[in-house]
Write a structure and sequence with these properties.
Shape: elongated
Distance between the termini: 61 Å
Structural class: alpha+beta
Oligomer: single chain
Number of helices: 14
Low-confidence stretches: none
Radius of gyration: 33 Å
Number of strands: 12
Largest sheet: 6 strands, antiparallel
Mean pLDDT: 89
Order of helices and strands: EEHHHEEEHEEEEHEHEHHHHHHHHE
Strand content: 15-25%
């Protein structure tokens, strides 16, 4: 069985592919004979197993049309997906099979498979991309900024005889109430509130600006949907608070004591240690950063909108991956939403934006492969398998599951990415990357 033709159309934002598939006469006859041979093994009165005439089997199966329709359905289920995979076609929806004429003895069997597929769109250019990248070695500014981050990490709080300002912390004793009753957990309690730090709503923080130790304040504020869980209401909250202390953040000096706290003998050695850690982070992160930026630069060359059906397909994949990760961590999705104060509309919007970005990147990679006339041969495919722990076993798994089209797709994308990275024009700019150094 093989695909003999492909036809692609775009209608209502959907990229449709129709395949014409043919099973040649030898395969048809072999499959029909095999079907009736299996049927002949059934218990049928008056006949020995394996010796039931075909005419009897057809009659017992409801007549010729019913029997041969069943054979048509079986050969499609058993052979069609391998043919589709061999033709390097990846449907993003379950394909629909259309049979205009059921299978017949000694005749080729022809039918179609149709479904949505990923679009191939025109790129504005196939030239090498131009990207910005941070320096490969740590700069003095990066070292200085990182040490500043370390100071921020090891801060201490000190009381200050002053009015509270943005960024200060205010220790208060408070009671919060709503609709005539106190709010559990926020009644007769001490709370250290960082003004502008997100520990309390912005409307709450504004009431503490300009307060001093020993001062009492009473105020009302309206709870936003984002703060509903914290205050257990979507209405107005009344607050009575006594300011016990205003505190300011104190950062340690960059001196020998600070260096020793971080495991270095002195400031000079601290600088060397930070430089080494930043360089290590760059060695680990810059290759992936460069790859991502090359793909993103290429994606910007697609000027047409991505068909909606492919964005929907990618969104389903994004959500499935997300839910699988939560499941692996044994986290309930509802608990996660409540704990992170997630709004459903924003969650859907974020998932759609991520899906659109991924869809555009995927389409860009496939489009460049096609538009630039790149090719994929058996050596390219085998090279990818050879990189696995069990090349032979891994290949067999992909082949047996009829997923080689997906594997070839991954090989094509890797080939395009390698070309993008190898040929990219890189502008080195002052820019920091995130590291795990503390």
């Amino acid at each position: 069985m093989r695909v003999v033709s492909q036809e692609q159309t775009v209608k209502d934002g959907k990229n449709q592919t129709v395949l014409t598939i043919v099973a040649e006469v030898p395969e048809v006859d072999e499959f029909i004979d095999s079907f009736f041979k299996k049927e002949a093994e059934r218990e049928i009165d008056g006949f020995r197993k394996g010796h039931v005439p075909r005419e009897v089997l057809i009659k017992k199966g409801g007549g010729r049309e019913a029997a041969y329709s069943k054979i048509s359905e079986d050969i499609i289920n058993e052979r069609a997906f391998a043919a589709i995979d061999d033709a390097d076609v990846i449907f993003t929806t379950e394909p629909a099979f259309n049979v205009s004429q059921i299978i017949e003895d000694h005749q080729p069997f022809i039918f179609t498979a149709s479904g949505q597929t990923m679009p191939i769109l025109k790129l504005s250019s196939t030239d090498p991309v131009t990207i910005n990248m941070p320096p490969e070695e740590a700069t003095e500014q990066e070292i200085s900024d990182h040490i500043q981050n370390l100071r921020e990490y090891y801060y201490t709080m000190r009381p200050a005889d002053k009015e509270a300002e943005q960024g200060d912390y205010v220790l208060i004793h408070m009671t919060c109430s709503t609709q005539g009753h106190d709010i559990n957990g926020l009644t007769n309690v001490d709370r250290l509130v960082g003004i502008g730090q997100g520990s309390m709503p912005e409307a709450f923080d504004r009431q503490l600006l300009g307060t001093k130790a020993g001062q009492s304040v009473s105020f009302d504020f309206t709870v936003t949907p984002e703060d509903h869980v914290e205050f257990n209401t979507d209405g107005t909250v009344h607050v009575d608070a006594d300011v016990k202390e205003v505190q300011v953040k104190h950062l340690p000096e960059v001196d020998e004591a600070f260096a020793q706290k971080l495991g270095s003998s002195d400031v000079e050695e601290l600088h060397k240690a930070v430089r080494a850690l930043i360089n290590q982070a760059k060695r680990e992160q810059l290759p992936q950063i460069m790859e991502d930026r090359c793909i993103e630069a290429l994606a910007q060359r697609i000027e047409e909108p991505i068909p909606a059906d492919y964005v929907d397909f990618m969104r389903n994949n994004v959500l499935a991956d997300f839910f699988n990760k939560l499941q692996e961590k044994d986290v309930n999705i509802q608990d996660w939403i409540i704990h992170n104060n997630i709004q459903s509309e924003q969650f859907k919007k974020d998932a759609t934006e991520q899906a659109e970005a991924l869809a555009r990147r995927n389409v860009a990679l496939e489009s460049l492969f096609s538009q630039a006339g790149m090719t994929l041969d058996e050596a390219d495919i085998q090279r990818e398998f050879d990189a696995t722990d069990d090349p032979e076993g891994t290949r067999k798994q992909w082949e047996d599951s009829h997923q080689m089209a997906l594997f070839r797709q991954a090989c094509r994308r890797n080939k395009v990415i390698n070309w993008l990275v190898k040929t990219a024009e890189v502008n080195v700019v002052e820019e920091q990357i995130q590291s795990e150094v503390q």
